[in-house]
Design brief:
By secondary structure, this protein is mostly beta strands. It has nine helices and 85 strands.
């Protein structure tokens, strides 16, 4: 058996020679393989057509290595062993693309088995377009590249420096071949030594000698420059740097295969001699290359084969017009056939051969050509198109129009191809090609013809298009036209007949003027018309005259004529007056000369009823006024005039009494005959209650009243005079004056006189409804009989004096000040209102309700002891009354004792006889629970023991109960049920929620423990029956057996316990069985059987 790598062959040979000097050196085997085959994509193909191993001195070897050495695609390619080979195992390395064949339990495998297995190894790719592949077959585990006939080995060594790796590589041999750090000179070599290597590490490149000049410094390539510069440098031959490498990031002078997952797989980066201490840029090993060194032996320990994929190397499409058949051609690589398909993936072969004649087709159709060997239908299909060109059609034409004569531009679009222009419908010579045709100069309408050509296919007919020649006449109109200036006529107002009329200010030349241009009198304008974009050559003159009219001022500046009704016509109440209508003429002329215009006045809007004497003798024809219509006419042209209107109004005078006597009583508390008058009280008297809308002012003289100057306040004291003049003026400024004569009388209540109303509060806010009418007769009785007096009530003196804010609802007045309020009383004569008395003569008192507190609920426990119901915190000295729920009085004290539940009511009465709101006690009856064993249901000897307490229909008592198990202090629950209850003695506590007490009862849950742990830790150290109560006698017993039925221990059931021993010896951990014979008080025996575990 021959070792493969390093110096071991020589070491082994030396050992052999030490034992037997007559042994010869082991001869390396010779491997031969054939295979240069076309590959059908996605299929399996044997990698060799023949294979042999010749070794004169050995019949077996440790392993055979088969690698996809060129063209390997990770994730697509794989090598598989097929057939039955019981003595051969395989291992596939997806990273290296290498399949290893080795023996069972790593034993050597015979050459015969390896030869047979190698012939059954197949290659398979999932790619539809795989590249050509080379396979290397070698007895060593170094990667073999047939292209270079070299071997490549990755040696792992974490943290090794480049210089150390160089020395280590130089010291390695492979079947006598001298090793060195790899020098990579081709893409195939880069893939095998990088991406397909077992790891990343140092290679033999460096720029340490000259920065930026990268050389191979190891092996036969020593001194060869392969890169100049940094990452943007160039290579004179081959380099495979990673992205942005080399970057000379800190004296990085040595080439290194980049760690997997960093950038381009298998590419290089530059590092310092040591690299980083950890991570992707820490050296993990080095790559040794073998081969090419002087003195290297010639080895035949490797062989290689290859496969290739055939392809279409050239294709020629075909074309036809409208429909028909055409020829398509495809040229395959050497030795291949051409299969034709009508889909890119279908299996239906249409034809086999390089030239394919299509069937008749109407549309452009793509066929697919496949280079095939032995009928293979997998691989890349090349589309070859049979183009069907429809006969082109003219899609649209656009004629043109020119004015008078000249050249025109015609346009057209076609479905495809080039457009040809002719002057004949058939035959002739093309005048132009393209979508646009500029015609020769013409003076008459002319028709042209066009077709289209695409790929030699011509339209079936020619399409006509017309160049129209337009000659436009003058528009028509009256050449002399006039307008009034009030029309503010513009060019657009000139009456003319024509199309797209344009206006000019001269007969020739110039540019058109805007139709919004205002017309100027005594001016000639010139018009043309445009038809189809062609303007008439000559222009039509139009002469314009503008006649002036008055431009009225804004309506808001034209005043109406207003007069107050007067006695000029003998009656100042009839709504008629004499007007001078010409008073507004200067305003209406608005700056124009009066001599140029005539005013005409009318009483109707149709201007048919003229006013003959407008200046001084016009009396309105409609009572209270009317609208007057005016026409202002140009004296030189009566067709130009302006019309307007204004109103004449006869405003009525207010209707009032000429004089009145206004009486008042001295009510200010000073009996001096002087008092304040509220003159406004006389307004309705003077106007007969019709003062709304009038402006009323008061004066001390008639002249001031007529002039409307020196007015006085409406509150007037008669010490300043007894005659007042009141001016009543309408909104229109028409007024009359009335004389007011003031007279004063004196009257008042007696000093200290008042009446009182007193009630108990019906709430607690000190407010209550009073009926004031109850004391009204008492006030009236203070005055002599025989008078018509009325009594009013007010909340303050000022309101009472001025008769403002009177209390209107006297029979339902709620006091505004809590508990006590004084009202002012005004007593006045209903006959004349002259005298009245005012004063704080009514006292309203609200006595408060008694207030106290109670605790509104008590619980009465049925133990025959009375409970005391108590009032507290009274706000006064009260008497009390207690009643039960039957209405019977049971106490007149602040407290009461009761012996039963129910609803109790208490009220309090003050010394003012005010009664409180009734307060209610709810006394609830409750009781401590009464429970015995018959009220309890126990479920025991189960995986879920439970206790249920029967409280249906108040079985335990009338109280509201809650329940606790084994804890007096709770927690308590409302549900009378407990589950997951352990075996043994338990106490049930029943608590009355109303506070009447807690009762309890002891119960027992019978149970047999499932296990015990006799380890003297104080927990489960013994096994015994739990929950055996007083219902069973001391004659009860328990027998314990081991799993084989041997009696181990017999216990008294009530007090006996087993500690896990037999005759003083500890028994082992196991399952044990028991029979419990329980004797009740009647002598009946209940037998229970079961098992439990002893756990140590």
């Amino acid at each position: 058996m021959l070792r493969k790598v390093g110096t071991l062959p020589y070491l082994i040979i030396f050992i052999f020679l030490a034992h037997n000097f007559c042994w010869a050196q082991n001869i390396a085997p010779v491997l031969t393989a054939t295979g240069n085959q076309a590959y059908c994509p996605k299929s399996q193909i044997n990698i060799v057509t023949d294979f042999d191993i010749v070794d004169p001195d050995d019949t077996s070897i440790e392993a055979l290595y088969i690698q996809i050495s060129t063209g390997y695609a990770l994730g697509e390619d794989i090598l598989l062993l097929t057939g039955f080979h019981p003595n051969v195992l395989t291992s596939w390395s997806a990273i290296e693309g290498k399949l290893t064949l080795f023996g069972i339990a790593s034993a050597p495998v015979s050459y015969l088995d390896l030869i047979a297995a190698t012939k059954d190894i197949v290659f398979q790719s999932t790619s539809n377009n795989p590249t050509d592949k080379f396979f290397s077959l070698t007895i060593g585990d170094a990667n073999y590249l047939p292209l270079t006939d070299h071997y490549y080995e990755y040696v792992p060594s974490i943290g090794i420096t480049w210089t150390t790796a160089q020395t280590a590589a130089d010291n390695r041999t492979y079947f006598g071949l001298q090793g060195y750090l790899a020098t990579i000179t081709s893409a195939e070599e880069a893939q095998l030594s990088g991406e397909q290597a077992a790891g990343a590490g140092w290679i033999g490149g460096s720029d340490a000698e000259a920065e930026g000049v990268w050389k191979w410094v190891t092996g036969p390539e020593t001194g060869t420059v392969f890169w100049n510069g940094l990452s943007n440098g160039t290579s004179p031959n081959f380099a495979f740097w990673n992205t942005n490498e080399p970057n000379q990031s800190g004296n990085e002078d040595y080439a290194h295969v980049t760690a997997p997952g960093v950038g381009i797989p298998g590419s290089w980066n530059d590092l310092t001699n040591t690299g980083n201490n950890s991570g992707d840029y820490q050296p993990k090993g080095y790559i040794v290359e073998y081969g090419g060194m002087p003195g290297d032996p010639v080895l035949n320990i490797s062989a290689s084969t290859n496969i290739f994929t055939v392809s279409i190397i050239n294709s020629t499409p075909g074309s036809i017009c409208e429909s028909g058949s055409t020829n398509l051609e495809a040229i395959p690589s050497s030795g291949a056939d051409v299969l034709w398909f009508d889909t890119p993936n279908g299996v239906n072969v249409l034809f086999s051969g390089q030239i394919f004649t299509t069937p008749n087709i109407n549309n452009t159709t793509t066929y697919y050509a496949l280079a095939s060997v032995n009928g293979c239908t997998e691989g890349v299909r090349i589309p070859v198109t049979a183009t069907v060109t429809p006969l082109p059609t003219i899609n649209s034409v656009n004629g043109s129009l020119i004015c008078n004569s000249g050249s025109g531009t015609l346009t057209a679009t076609a479905s495809a191809g080039v457009i040809n222009w002719y002057d004949l419908p058939n035959g002739g010579v093309s005048l132009n090609t393209g979508t646009t045709f500029n015609t020769p100069s013409v003076s008459a309408t002319t028709t042209y013809y066009l077709d289209a050509t695409v790929n030699g296919c011509v339209s079936s007919t020619r399409t006509p298009v017309t160049l129209t020649v337009q000659k436009t006449p003058l528009p028509t109109a009256n050449t002399n036209q006039s307008f009034c200036d009030i029309e503010q006529a513009t060019i657009s107002n000139i009456i003319i007949t024509g199309a797209s009329v344009l206006w000019y200010t001269s007969n020739t030349g110039g540019t058109p003027i805007n139709t919004s241009t205002t017309l100027v009198t005594n001016t000639t304008y010139y018009a043309t018309q445009t038809i189809n974009g062609c303007e008439s050559i000559n222009r039509l003159p139009i002469n314009i005259i503008i006649n002036e009219t008055v431009v009225l001022p804004p309506p808001s500046e034209i005043p109406n004529l207003n007069l107050c009704d007067n006695l000029l016509d003998g009656d100042d109440t009839n709504g008629y007056a004499i007007f001078d209508l010409t008073a507004n003429e200067t305003i209406l002329l608005n700056g124009k000369l009066a001599s140029n215009y005539t005013f005409n006045y009318f009483t109707d809007s149709a201007y048919t009823i003229p006013i003959i004497t407008p200046s001084s003798a016009f009396i309105n024809t409609i009572e209270d006024g009317q609208k007057i219509y005016i026409r202002i006419v140009n004296t030189t042209n009566n067709s130009c005039y302006t019309e307007t209107s204004f109103d004449v109004n006869v405003n009525e005078l207010p209707a009032i009494q000429a004089s009145i006597v206004f009486k008042n009583c001295d009510e200010d508390g000073v009996a001096d005959g002087f008092t304040n008058f509220n003159l406004e009280e006389a307004n309705d008297i003077i106007t007969g209650n019709n003062s709304v809308g009038l402006t009323i002012s008061y004066y001390t003289s008639i002249n001031d009243a007529n002039n409307g100057s020196g007015s006085i306040s409406s509150i007037f004291n008669n010490q300043n005079g007894n005659t007042i003049y009141a001016r009543f003026e309408t909104i229109n400024g028409c007024y009359r004056v009335s004389e007011i004569n003031l007279q004063v009388s004196t009257t008042s209540f007696s000093n200290g006189y008042f009446e009182a109303l007193e009630f108990c509060d019906d709430t607690t806010d000190g407010l209550i409804s009073f009926d004031l009418t109850q004391v009204t007769p008492l006030f009236i009785s203070q005055f002599p009989t025989g008078q018509n007096l009325s009594v009013q009530y007010y909340e303050n003196l000022n309101d009472a004096i001025l008769e403002e804010n009177e209390i209107i609802q006297q029979d339902n007045y709620i006091n505004k000040i809590a508990f006590s309020q004084t009202l002012y009383v005004r007593v006045e004569s209903d006959d004349n209102g002259e005298c009245f008395g005012i004063g704080p003569h009514l006292l309203l008192t609200v006595n408060p309700k008694p207030e106290f507190e109670v605790d509104n609920s008590e619980i009465y426990c049925l133990d025959n002891n009375p409970i005391t119901l108590t009032t507290f915190n009274p706000k006064g000295n009260y008497s009390y009354e207690w009643k039960d729920d039957n209405g019977q009085i049971i106490s007149n004290s602040p407290t009461v004792e009761v012996l039963s539940g129910g609803e109790y009511t208490v009220t309090a009465t003050s010394n003012l006889d005010c009664i409180s709101f009734p307060l209610i006690f709810d006394v609830v009856e409750s009781a401590i629970a009464v429970i015995d064993i018959e009220d309890i249901t126990i479920v025991e000897l189960t995986d879920n023991n439970s206790i249920t307490i029967n409280n249906d229909n108040n079985n335990l008592g009338i109280g509201n109960y809650e329940f606790s198990l084994d804890n007096f202090d709770g927690p308590y629950r409302d549900e009378p049920f407990f589950d997951r209850v352990g075996a043994g003695s338990h106490i049930i506590y029943v608590k009355d929620k109303n506070g009447c007490g807690i009762t309890s009862i002891e119960v027992f849950i019978l149970g047999f423990p499932k296990y015990f742990t006799p380890n003297n830790d104080g927990v489960n150290d013994t096994w015994l029956i739990k929950g055996l109560g007083q219902d069973y006698t001391d004659a009860s017993k328990v027998s314990v057996f081991n799993r084989y039925g041997k009696l181990i221990k017999q216990l008294t059931s009530k007090s006996g316990a087993w500690d896990g021993t037999f005759n003083g010896e500890l028994l082992p951990q196991s399952d044990y069985w028991f029979i419990a014979e329980l004797v009740d008080l009647s002598g009946n025996v209940k037998t229970y059987k079961g098992h439990f575990s002893l756990v140590r």
